[in-house]
Amino acid sequence: MRIAAWQGKPVTGGLGESLECLDKIATQAKEQGADILVTPEMYLSGYNIGTQAVGEAAHSMAEKGLSALSDLARQNNLCLLVGYPELNDKGQAYNAAALFGRNGDLLSNYRKSHLFGEVDRAQFTAGDSLSPLIELDGWSISLGICYDIEFPEVARSYALAGADLVLVPTANMLPFDGVATRLVPARSEENSLFMVYANYCGNEGDFHYCGLSCICGPDGEDLARAGRGEELIVAELKKDALRSVRENVRYLADRRPGLYSKIQE
Q1: 84, 96, 107, 165: least buried by Cβ within 10 Å?
Q2: Long-range contacts of 173-181 (CB under 8 A, 24+ apart)
């Protein structure tokens, strides 16, 4: 499987501009042979935009956003994972990410379950479950959003469920470089799975996004790593590498859950 992660500045001109930019990025990803394109957290609306703007964007998405994403996936013959504000039946917004197949089918919709700081808590309602596994081209895939992956229990839960790959849209800002440079590779290595972490760059309100998007192998090594600016990174994920690591790294098999079951309380 060949996978791409887009690292760009937040798009501020509304849904139409976001979709236009996404179409161009999808074309670039497809030209580089990508099977899946992962965008940053809340890509369709921007992340640090305020409660009122999130609500307005969520209503706009409810009216036409998902069908437009489906069309983009189908037109580009590319799987798309796109962050967006999802309106719930109480008129509140989830921080969500939708995964579309090449034929435009909605394969999964995940809602961020761990909210970070006042911005998240003011703008969003937390999801109440982790991502189910999605089977795609012989790969088992799970989803996380930003802060979710900073909790070791999340990636471990996915690994124990049989995930090969975790896709993580994010909006990580300075001074938290260590998430991208230390935590994400560690989550990959300790769980023997691939991980894709797609971040913003540039500024949004008082946030300065740190970039450093990455695609990590099951040994924790970078397969691709962005710098601080706009960049499309692409990497080939190989099942042979996954099998090799899992034969030699025994963290999951050597666990002794009875010794640390209280951690789950």
Answers
A1: 107
A2: 173/207, 173/208, 173/209, 173/210, 174/208, 174/209, 174/210, 175/210, 176/210, 177/210, 177/212, 179/149, 179/150, 180/210, 180/212, 180/213, 180/214, 181/212
In tens, the pLDDT along 90-120 reads: 889 999 999 999 999 999 999 999 999 999 9
Per DSSP bridges, beta strands 106-111 and 134-136 are unpaired
Cα–Cα distances in angstroms (integers) from residue 164 to residues 4, 155, 192, in the given order: 16, 11, 8
**Tokens of residue 182, six digits:** 């230390």
Q: Which residues contact 63 (CB under 8 A, 6 or more apart)?
A: none
- Distance separating alpha carbons of residues 95 and 171, to the nearest angstrom: 11
pTM for the model stands at 0.96
Decide if pLDDT at 265 tops 60: no
The packing angle between helices 15-31 and 66-76, to 10°, is 20
Kind of pairing, strands 2-7 and 134-136?
A: unpaired
The residues annotated with a catalytic role in the active site are 41, 112, 146
